[in-house]
Amino acid sequence: MLSHVLLSVIVGLSIVLMLVRPRGVPEVYWVGGGAFLLILLHLVPLKLAARAVAKGSDVYLFLIGMMLLSELAREHGVFDWLSSVAVRGANGSCVRLFTLVYGIGTLVTIFMSNDATAVVLTPAILTAVRKAKVQPLPYLFACALIANAASFVLPISNPANLVVFHQGMPPLGRWLLSFGVPSLLSIAATYAVMRLVFRKDLTACIEESVDAGHSVATEGLFWAVWP
Fold it and tell me: What's the predicted TM-score (pTM) here?
């Protein structure tokens, strides 16, 4: 009984510390420390932990590959270029800019995973809309919510899909038949709701242009502005 209570306390505390991030310590240390403590106190058998780690090897490799690809794209300015193209393509219309950002976020989520949209595309979009001197909140919400709404279009759109369907990932054709229409409805509904919620912010006009060659240290900026 005591072991169950202790296990629950350690897990709960690790999650809270991960969310709060005291002194700015990254989440991985709190979660990793909690997991290590569970093994150290023999609350989770070492063999069971090793088996769990081994089962997730394909997911780890997928994540490493996708994040390396995302980092390579970031280093070469792909996300900065996409965000500046969206601003210039808006032709002064915040509604058009919102739609373009949402569309770019949808494509990045589908083909590069929702992590790439949330962690790499979002700060690039933030920099572009700040340069354009428009209210950034609608566009940040567009990136954040499309990372969820489009995460079932393809199996690779969300790494969690590989975990959930680890033992029986359906063929691509069956996947699209099962999740294609719901995903499209999710994308459309999310767009419609956000257009309604931010309708006042999107009535403004874009006064400043953004140079297609602008580049920033996006990762540092992201963690600087993320609460």
Answer: 0.73
